[in-house]
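#onboarding

Welcome to the new folks! Below is a worked example of what a typical request in this channel looks like: someone posts a single protein sequence, and someone else replies with the predicted structure as tokens. Don't worry about understanding the tokens yet, we'll cover that in week two.

Example request:
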Amino acid sequence: MSDAALTYATPEMEAAKGVWGDERTSPPIAASDIRKWAIATYWPEKPPRIHWDEEYATTTRWGGIIAPPDFNPFAWPIERIAGRAGPQPRKPDGKPMTGMNGGQTDTYGVPMRPGDVITTRTRLLDWEEREGRLGHTLFTRTEIEWRNQRDELVKRRVSIGIRY
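Example response:
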């Protein structure tokens, strides 16, 4: 195969491009979940009161406790969800590719609050292939979206995967 014809993109990737995958829904967020996450996130410092002090939080523009932006309501699943990565490219010889995280960009919408139920979904946005120091390399962009029960955007993450 000539270098010009080499591609790691698969027909499965073409079919999945731009298509949202199955949704997953979190259990309702508890104030104690937010408090514990804030304690862990800010340790050894005391977390901001907006994340644990209801009396104080009602005096803020939010009118109640909110979760830190990095709070993950999917962090404690009862059962581990496997195989959610979507179509995986392979080398032309069928062998798996070596991969690494190329970074991510998070955009935040409304904050998560006690009682919120978050729904997430993922899709393959696009990809690019080019020659690099490690040979032919595939860069994929994946989007993850979180929305609350009012269909308000909570978080959007675009991740870059690098495979060679």
